[in-house]
Amino acid sequence: MLMDGNRTQDLRRMYTLFSRVNALESLRQALSSYIRKTGQGIVMDEEKDKDMVFSLLEFKVSLDKIWEDSFSKNDVFCNTIKEAFEHLINLRQNRPAELIAKFLDEKLRAGNKGTSEEELEGTLDKVLVLFRFIQGKDVFEAFYKKDLAKRLLLGKSASIDAEKSMISKLKTECGSQFTNKLEGMFKDIELSKEINESFKQSSQARTKLPSGIEMSVHVLTTGYWPTYPPMDVCLPHELNVYQDIFKEFYLSKYSGRRLMWQNSLGHCVLKAEFPKGKKELAVSLFQVGCVLCSCMVAILSMMFSSHSNHVNGQYVIQTVVLMLFNDAQKLSFQDIKDATSIEDKELRRTLQSLACGKIRVLQKIPKGREVDDNDSFMFNDGFTAPLYRIKVNAIQLKETVEENASTTERVFQDRQYQVDAAIVRIMKTRKVLSHTLLITELFQQLKFPIKPVDLKKRIESLIDREYLERDKSNPQIYNYLA
């Protein structure tokens, strides 16, 4: 086929011929049909989800080239390409939006080497073209925000300038309300740097801090960041002291705020003395609790929240586990669980990372890849590694179907609140309105795709909660209840 073979000259001849006999509409329809059929093969093939965004970008580039070289930049054909692309990208309601956010995460991560600033900027512009076609932009926002949070908190951004450039592009496309929380995340990171500098110069830090420990705290505003489940854990005494002193300092500057430590993303660098040499271990806070052994210095990065802000730490878990071995040569699984109060599944993952991975700071008895209730753990006296600084990776469950489903579910919950608010807003103004007109106005106001049956459910919910009532003489008419 001419399109598949990218035969631009033959297509140009066809375009010229069809234009002479007033048959361009037939060619336009054929183009639309081709785009929809080919695009459906890209979007609907779940086995190729990993390559979906890249394939769509390549497809769009090829279509744009054909439009320029073969179709004389005809505006009607340009609109046909746009309409067909919007149709195919929204064939699967939420998945393309999620995958576009994930694609951007890959490009904006520090591990994305070999790409210049200009190339990265060009990629962002191309992805933005796909973003424009997404109807459910709130799904994209939820996944993009979750990934941006990880990049910022773990220092994984390839370029802060590129991050801000992308947010600026999104702001231009969707307005400041869409990017308000994303911009707030950057403000929190910058403000945290100032708070940490101020804390280091404070009297509390100079006179009360335990020696040999440095800690950096991220203070996050809850409304800006994704929600992280609270994780209860018994921290080592040194870390508790540091937290208490920081909290005293912070509340003396910002009275009336509420602080909550969030231990799911914190990370630490431990300087440890092994029989075969000194090493620096880059670990999670939970890992540290398991193994500090002759630790000389711990450099901690933790998250804190103010105004209902939160503080951060999955890397904190490794720290918690490692530090137990300062006072014991051998501990059972139950001993570690009792001492740390780490949730069972999280503790097993942490111990796997310390005793079953490539970097085995601990020895597991008996040997094996899984952690069982009857296992015991010892400090690995024979540990050695060629590098001085070693990263002990936590066993990360890849983003599971459940995790992604949870993010999507939060989007749907937010949509329900928005639908309810829109219904009440319309009815408060109109007082009395027919079902058909109410549905029509809702479609005009809501910025995401939704089915009439789902709108009807929200209307019924508001009737049950006595915001609305059906008219006694005509059940197709709603009355607003003040």
Automatic annotation (TrEMBL):
InterPro entries: Cullin (IPR045093), Cullin-like_AB (IPR059120), Cullin_CS (IPR016157), Cullin_homology (IPR016158), Cullin_homology_sf (IPR036317), Cullin_N (IPR001373), Cullin_neddylation_domain (IPR019559), Cullin_repeat-like_dom_sf (IPR016159). The keyword Signal does not apply. Residues 95-355 form the Cullin family profile domain. This is Cullin, conserved site-containing protein. PROSITE patterns: CULLIN_1 (PS01256), CULLIN_2 (PS50069). GO terms for molecular function: ubiquitin protein ligase binding. Belongs to the cullin family.
